[in-house]
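Session log. Operator J.P. requested a structure for one protein chain; no other inputs attached. Running the standard single-chain path with token output.
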Amino acid sequence: MYTLLLLGMLLSADKPYAVDVPAESEILKTLRAEHPRLIATAEDTARIKRLIADDPRAAEIYQQVKRNADRYLTAQTVQYRIIGPRLLSESRKCLEHVYTLATAYRLEGDRRYLERAVKEMLTAASFKDWNPSHFLDTAEMTHALAIGYDWLYKDLDAQQRETIRRAIVEKGLREAEKVYRKQQWWSRTRHNWNQVCNGGITIGALAVAEDEPELARYIVHQAVQSVQLAMREFAPDGACVEGPGYWNYATSYNVYMLAALETALGTDFGLSGFPGFSVTGDFRIHFIGPTKQTFNFADAGSSAGRAAQMFWLARKFNQPLYAWHEREYIGGGSPLHLWWFDGRGQPLGKSGFPTDRGFRYADVVFLRSAWDDPQAVFVGFKGGDNKVNHSHLELGTFVLDALGQRWAVDLGSDDYNMPAYFGNKRWTYYRLATIGQNTIVIDGQNQDPKAVAPVIAFASQPNRAHAVVDLSAAYAKQLSKALRGMALLDRKHVLVQDELEGITGKELWWQMHTRAKIELKGNQALLMQGKQQLWARILEPAEAVFAIESAAAPPPQNPNTGVQKLVVKLPAKTPMRLAVLLSPDRLPEKLPAVEPLSKWIAK
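Structure written below.
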């Protein structure tokens, strides 16, 4: 099954999806003349007013938006404040303020919201620049002012329009033009920077297109070509190699861009047809566990956050399950949750949505006992590529939820402003190095930063699901072969099994980071959080015992307060098999037999 899927991927790669981009001179030919034309038109305003009156959930979201708008009336305006190399926090503040205040004004008609939104935009327009050296800042600020300019266009006076439009052009679009003319790096990359920069700048160009037609045509033409590089990364199944946090960032800007193209031009030029994009919401549904925390591999936090693009994807691709899932997870709601609101869908447990899933390009696997059960067992497990953007040296790592608690935790990212976080000190930081992951460590050494670890087996059956990752390249300097298997047995017990050959190192550590209290009992360990408990039992080798190690990191790193490591320390020998069973509440009466991973692969 897995082999056939891989073969299909390879065959489809010979016929890459192509977008027929119009000539630059024709690309804005269908531009909608009136404002607002970006993402939410005048017709949408009338529709949303009716929706708020008819749908209690939409009304609840609107009340949250309005409460935020009321709060922003007296909030401090955006400031030119650089932290490290970034103005990004201020760009995002401006974006949040403008979307919220402009939404409230369009739906309430209260000029206080209009005046406060204009004040925000004029303040940002007065900045000396929008920090183009870190272009995400520029793209997000361009997006913010473009939405305010477009949505509030008819209520801005001539001077306000001119000031805001000039800022969009000079501080946003002209800076992007320099990048496109020289084909600088973000216009050629395949990760989130591409989608964010192209998305924000496209929205800016569409906002001012009638006044700057030549520049707008050039920007949109370049952006539509450039963004294809990143959108190819959705194939074949919608996953994101940069982790759940950057899935959210990249897909949100991808959707902003496509939504704006559709409302302003009546077409996205076929960009939404890229393989994998229509099902990318599957990835979000799977990476959130029953604790509502994500499998936060790479530079990601464990909070799922909001993802209004799930509503847009639901409507665009007729995926009502995406809408249901987002309504369950958003808590309050954002302006775009309102503009894109979709009330369809049913609980996951009634939908037939698979409990287990392997994502091929990202080499990430998710196993769970059930949907719609906050006590369910959930495992996120990964292979992947240590070279991808925002990666950690964490091939083979996993997280584990059960009984409403997260037992095996991924520590996530650290402070981006630490020295050389994205440079030559990256692999010295605990949270990014192999020592900070739930995987194998040999002699305290990092995995190879260039290693790739493919998922070589995946199976899902009623009473058992499992996957196997080939970690050999990750430890190539220390052994000849390394396989890690992860199995969910009887939809309750989790088996982590490692098989190693040709080991040249001296000591091997098996690691699992946890916030639980740990009691050691030789080859067993009892983990406790509140009234809940998880048992760990070493099945092989017979002589192995558990130990506890610190997960503390020195300043300026996060100290990892409240986290410790459950470890197994073994003198290296070859071949070696290490099998650990993790059981919520209690161990099974009969321990499972340990089978070679070759049998797992054959199943």
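Operator note: Residues 301 and 412 are 5 Å apart (CA to CA).
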